[in-house]
Amino acid sequence: QQELVRSARCRHGAPCRWGSQFNVPPSAQFVARPVGVCSMMKLPMQASAEGLDAAFIGVPLDTGTSNRPGARFGPRQIRAESVMVRRYNASTRAAPFESLQVADIGDVNVNLYNLPDSCRLIRESYQKIVASGCVPLTLGGDHTITYPILQVVAEKHGPVGLVHVDAHTDTGDRALGEKIYHGTPFRRCVEEGLLDCSRVVQIGIRGSSYDPDPYKYCRDQGFRVVPAEECWRKSLVPLMGEVRTQMGDKPVYISFDIDGLDPAYAPGTGTPEIAGLTPVQALEIIRGCKGLNIVGCDLVEVAPMYDVSGNTALLGANLLFEMLCVLPGVKTR
Amino acid sequence: QQELVRSARCRHGAPCRWGSQFNVPPSAQFVARPVGVCSMMKLPMQASAEGLDAAFIGVPLDTGTSNRPGARFGPRQIRAESVMVRRYNASTRAAPFESLQVADIGDVNVNLYNLPDSCRLIRESYQKIVASGCVPLTLGGDHTITYPILQVVAEKHGPVGLVHVDAHTDTGDRALGEKIYHGTPFRRCVEEGLLDCSRVVQIGIRGSSYDPDPYKYCRDQGFRVVPAEECWRKSLVPLMGEVRTQMGDKPVYISFDIDGLDPAYAPGTGTPEIAGLTPVQALEIIRGCKGLNIVGCDLVEVAPMYDVSGNTALLGANLLFEMLCVLPGVKTR
Amino acid sequence: QQELVRSARCRHGAPCRWGSQFNVPPSAQFVARPVGVCSMMKLPMQASAEGLDAAFIGVPLDTGTSNRPGARFGPRQIRAESVMVRRYNASTRAAPFESLQVADIGDVNVNLYNLPDSCRLIRESYQKIVASGCVPLTLGGDHTITYPILQVVAEKHGPVGLVHVDAHTDTGDRALGEKIYHGTPFRRCVEEGLLDCSRVVQIGIRGSSYDPDPYKYCRDQGFRVVPAEECWRKSLVPLMGEVRTQMGDKPVYISFDIDGLDPAYAPGTGTPEIAGLTPVQALEIIRGCKGLNIVGCDLVEVAPMYDVSGNTALLGANLLFEMLCVLPGVKTR
Amino acid sequence: QQELVRSARCRHGAPCRWGSQFNVPPSAQFVARPVGVCSMMKLPMQASAEGLDAAFIGVPLDTGTSNRPGARFGPRQIRAESVMVRRYNASTRAAPFESLQVADIGDVNVNLYNLPDSCRLIRESYQKIVASGCVPLTLGGDHTITYPILQVVAEKHGPVGLVHVDAHTDTGDRALGEKIYHGTPFRRCVEEGLLDCSRVVQIGIRGSSYDPDPYKYCRDQGFRVVPAEECWRKSLVPLMGEVRTQMGDKPVYISFDIDGLDPAYAPGTGTPEIAGLTPVQALEIIRGCKGLNIVGCDLVEVAPMYDVSGNTALLGANLLFEMLCVLPGVKTR
Amino acid sequence: QQELVRSARCRHGAPCRWGSQFNVPPSAQFVARPVGVCSMMKLPMQASAEGLDAAFIGVPLDTGTSNRPGARFGPRQIRAESVMVRRYNASTRAAPFESLQVADIGDVNVNLYNLPDSCRLIRESYQKIVASGCVPLTLGGDHTITYPILQVVAEKHGPVGLVHVDAHTDTGDRALGEKIYHGTPFRRCVEEGLLDCSRVVQIGIRGSSYDPDPYKYCRDQGFRVVPAEECWRKSLVPLMGEVRTQMGDKPVYISFDIDGLDPAYAPGTGTPEIAGLTPVQALEIIRGCKGLNIVGCDLVEVAPMYDVSGNTALLGANLLFEMLCVLPGVKTR
Amino acid sequence: QQELVRSARCRHGAPCRWGSQFNVPPSAQFVARPVGVCSMMKLPMQASAEGLDAAFIGVPLDTGTSNRPGARFGPRQIRAESVMVRRYNASTRAAPFESLQVADIGDVNVNLYNLPDSCRLIRESYQKIVASGCVPLTLGGDHTITYPILQVVAEKHGPVGLVHVDAHTDTGDRALGEKIYHGTPFRRCVEEGLLDCSRVVQIGIRGSSYDPDPYKYCRDQGFRVVPAEECWRKSLVPLMGEVRTQMGDKPVYISFDIDGLDPAYAPGTGTPEIAGLTPVQALEIIRGCKGLNIVGCDLVEVAPMYDVSGNTALLGANLLFEMLCVLPGVKTR
């Protein structure tokens, strides 16, 4: 009963550390799952990244979507479903909330009607976050958002390595006359020198194409492209060994488009492609990043309206937690 | 059996007039409802408005949406559900397909990533349509699109009267820093002199507001604002008598936002407001426009993903048919 | 642009008063609707009712539900959809955020597995809220929760008058052997003397019954029962005039079960009954309470899973806002 | 506790009369609503109509559907949602389970692949039911099924009066070359002399048409056609007074197509038409039949897949209960 | 035709054995799939387990659910979707309906508002079933129900072996202060000596945890815990060989939580965890139990509202049929 | 911009070849995905197969469905979701639109109320298509339709080899007394000598059965039956090597029932069976047909209402594109 009262006290975003020096998500043993204004994992919310080692932040933008919109509600739904995620990683024994100070710092305010201006707003918000030394874990939003985020990340860390999980390379040049939308972020990053191109891997790529050789651009830049076909029915543990070698100890960014997974697992997304990766492989990829010098992560393209069950968002919430678990400094127990 | 063959021949968009001088939608007595690539009412499709008295045209844009997106799929779903609409208006005895040459001329190609450019594309498409003397019946799309359409319409007809059904006045000045989105089209129209402000009526307006006196701007321009409260439980036949007097015989445009209706009837829309109009009142409004010099119509803001039944789109299809039935020159039988 | 920055600063629950002495919900003109961790109307969250005139509070419990469960997610979804509600009441000119200090104080932690213990937890939470002089506006939750809330309210104010909108009288004695579930709260309240029985009105009652004379108990207590049949197709403005007389100037509580409305308007609820009230009548009832000495309000039984559109929750959010607008001390503009 | 055991004993379809001479639906006060293999109102099931005054029977056929199929699952879903219906009619004080012996006698086995053969199967089943003197209350199924049912009913009672609620007259001659589908039952009935044409009323008719004068056939037969337009915003109590006079004391059949109601109330149906009747009017129609010599009833065209909430089926269950309540011999309390 | 009549006669739950000494589910070749009041596989219903070798029984309880409720409707939906399951197991050649007398004996009446009392009601019902020598195949309901069932089973058979498929070990001690909910049944069973702990295997366990070593309790009791990670991409045939050895010929109970499967296959459940088992593995587990001395089975946690397709319930129905097929005494053909 | 205009010109079904001699689907780089009246891949529509090497054609029939109907809307939804499919096959490098003249020739008009007559209508339509030398790629519709299609195909090519992917063999003799429905097409084909029985392979077969040895009929005819069990967790590349040998260079027809796949990937179908094939295996099967003398293909049983996401239809659209890519004469780049 004592504990019930204690958890009740934690519900409003006030520091909630359960006797620890770090913020800790409340347990469903003490706070009922449906209870609470949904921050990510019901972590305390704070207005800036000040004092944080890592922060969850939402970017509810979908103006860059080419087919089904709705990713603007990705952050809201991922937070809602994150009530199922608990503090320890039972598989890897990672204990992020005994290692890092983590909070939910809310959403970037975006300009739904103007993509370049949204990029500016994202950039300005992330400059403050990254400046404070905090690692951003982003809840998207469509994939456009990774472009301004990487502008900020590279500003601090120099050109970064990239672990990019996706059905699409997102290296188009333009569409409908525009250079900024969710099909082009990584070409823009290449052009601006934000990526260390020899340390880029794209995993899960597939689908029909406008070009007979659609991966040429990527390979010409030095990216490693791992089509879904090379992943089918395989463990990706060996691949990730190679990726760790490729990445070395220089800064790495993880950009995870939920459509990298097969639509059976992630129906709630806007541009699904058949015959994709499995959640098991997603875990192998993210857990395989342990030891890398990760400086930022995102999980994008969750469009909840196409998945009435909420399970695509639940998957997103779990994958974000797994990313948290492989950040530098996270201890195991 | 003869007729089954005949209808089979009509399925591909080739002229399909059933012995009439006009295009005629096929009957479900001869062509099964699920059959056919869905143009509006399964009318023949043609590439331009050439030779048409009226044309259905889609504008699948939702980049101007402030809350739930999805109206980009409005035209597709309205066409799909229009298989339920038959050629005669049993209530008014209107026989549009014995009076006018009507076709579906497809969709305007929009720039999903750039609202001003979409406006340009809409404007260019409509200039050709309107130039040919054809009355456009537009399947939206979010309400942003009415602005470029009215630019074209006013270019030909001068400032027009407006019968505007909506939950919102859509006369905001800007949002998120932008002057073009679905909350501002009619202020832009006023500023550009596209509206004959003394001949503007806005029906069904309601909802909470950012301003204590939210209709002031409209009334200052000379608009007649008819809040939903004034419509509750009433026939709108008397109102429409007054509206016909207000409009006179000068050109009138009908802009019908599906969220003018109560969300019970039209759940598939992005910015619903409670306590709205009924479909009965919608019919009274549109039928009450008979006799006016209508030069264009639109039905906007159908976002099908929020209505699994398809019935919001069905409602939209019926209301578009009703608009066709009150166009000048439509005979009754 | 200045304002965009300002709103960005408001997103984390820090006091956000826009230059006012009171908390003010952010405008979608400055903060995009999908942005933000959803508190009610995106109001600031705070840990206690301290300093507040009125507070939104959630009680995410549905263990008392007899048919379809899901009301535990009512508070979450009502908050999510409340992004459509703006600061002024355009119809009544009420300006609650220029009159009262209002915040969202989160959820009561409930015991999903034990109804009497949940009642205890609710009671304990509300004692603090009510003690501070704050008027609670509750987001339910099934109707069971009104019983412990009224225990606390009557403890402070003595037996209260009750404006009860519902399809059911909720005055059953027991079900499945239990005295506490969502069909019995008002019988429990009568037994404990929490209601001023001559000042109780139940509006919208209908449906088949286990008893040939199902309203006898209520009328025997002195309640006024207004069956839905007496409301059909009528304005409830005259009724509310009588209700105001009945209530006088003594304390009144408003308990609004969303199933009082017809399931067409509120499909997302657990025990729907056909042929119910309309949202127009709901507004007439609530607005008709202006001038009463309202000491608390609740909106219960929103079970979002049965309404994929989210519109039942949107309706709930609007009705809660309307209740806020009729609280004592709310000025008009 | 005693009662819990008693209800447990009733769950399997064994006679369950609660001390009464008649079958009585169990109360949710004693049997939890989700409990039980769903017969209509959880009434006992029996293999024939033997000994019954009235019987619920399902006809799960939708092969006659012209647009959206799914009414084959109408009976299953109506039974499932009927757990909300209780034994007394609180509005009319009807007590059918103190007046008549009622049971659920299951479904007619239909031939999904052959409409004429399904008609034969229905005919054969109903001959036994009607021969035993039992009044059938049918759960459809698409409207095709009323044709073979009326063949049987008229065989016993001679040409019957008909209270027909629907959006469509269902008096087409043929479609896709076929004379039997859900658009033709009442023309077939006329041709076979099953209807007493001067005692036929069709209420709620509306929608676009293939003919400029679509009601001519009906009126030529002597039917009274009451278009939806004549019902809008009106009480149908006066109409039903006239209908009772029209029907006199000769046998009457009630055929209620759920699409007679507006799609807001009944989204789960295959050929919806906008601007229809309300549930309030549906109650007025059915309750207005009290005193007539009703020899059979059906409720058709519930297609549950188009209404995720289950509420169309709930509406159907309630309307079937209301029909039961107006059968000859039902007492009030 | 003869057969159509014969099946029609079988529809009401009367003994229906098709010339066999055993009950046999009707074939869709003779009875249309949508036909019939849905018992499990349309088997005859009977009021007690008298004379049965095995019985399907529902326990529609979800008061023990910690996240999304709805499993109270599991039995209803599993029965509805079981119309797809036919009498023979084409893969294993099992012919349960030529080997055992099987029926559907309806649902246990539960107390939705009181978990301990529901446990009592379940216990009392199962005592009668198990006493009669019948093997219960339970349609859940949330996992709480396995606790009282095992009390009864162990009362008769002594401590049982357990094949437990699940995402969670369900060996928590308490939550929200309660010892009985769906996270604790197997700890309660251990405490009461209902399990032969060296013969317990838990398969598919995964997900984040409140404890750094969440399987310690289980392993301390002697359970074999097989995390999902050990199952990924593997045949479970070898594992089941080991399990058969572990179980020996002493009594075994199978408890299958549908959330053991990946949410892609079973979205309709309340506490899903990513990266779970596949239906192929589920079949390998159940078929791998052939030869064991199975004394009871359950399939729990199907919450249909989260899977609009009905396919989670269909999966549940098939898995229950597969359990029936491995019961002692089932012959192959 | 030039290109935007060009694509705008292509939107109405007029020849649209982008400078190529062949029809080419427009690119989402130039035409926004939501734009256009949905033909398959937005290809030009034409009224006959004249001049085409291959044609997409819909057969919107589901009267042959034994469980959940809805496949009548398969063609409409497959076309709608095909906006995601692009012109090149990135995996196989197939370039069908540089090799063949392809168009969408609309739907066959079917008789929804009469299966034999629908077969006649299909036969008559396909006779014209096949006579012109065009390879039909059919969008179903339920599996009944393959019977009349194969009548026409065999009329031209003699008995054909068959690559049949399905959960069911569809070789039943009759159901509900009928010889024509979706469970019998291949028995009818055998009886009429339309199949070269030694060149028939059925892949993915599974599920419970009405017969203890359900594959006997098939094997007696000489079919190769590959149960799903033999496919689990395996690459089907080796199998397809054997199949190519089996098929030789004589004519082959591909009939792909979407329920061959596991319901996790294809929930939108009427008679799902658990533990089926994966999309990866579907691709291996179809790509493994490269080199065969394919004379026709179909993709049947997509029933969109059971998959709110649209992803089953998307899967169907992709598989149809893959079939196009393996037609004789398709070059790679």
UniProtKB/TrEMBL annotation, chains A, B, C, D, E, F:
The keyword Hydrolase applies. It comes from the Eukaryota. InterPro entries: Agmatinase-rel (IPR005925), Ureohydrolase (IPR006035), Ureohydrolase_dom_sf (IPR023696), Ureohydrolase_Mn_BS (IPR020855). CDD domains: Agmatinase_PAH. SUPFAM superfamilies: Arginase/deacetylase. Keywords: Hydrolase, Manganese, Metal-binding. Its cofactor is Mn(2+). Mn(2+) binds at H143, D166, H168, D170, D257, D259. The keyword Cytoplasm does not apply. GO terms for molecular function: agmatinase activity; guanidinobutyrase activity; metal ion binding. Gene3D superfamilies: Ureohydrolase domain (3.40.800.10). One of its GO terms (biological process) is putrescine biosynthetic process from arginine, via agmatine. Binds 2 manganese ions per subunit. Pfam families: Arginase. NCBIfam families: agmatinase. Belongs to the arginase family. Agmatinase subfamily. This is Agmatinase. It comes from Accipiter nisus. The lineage of its organism: Eukaryota, Metazoa, Chordata, Craniata, Vertebrata.
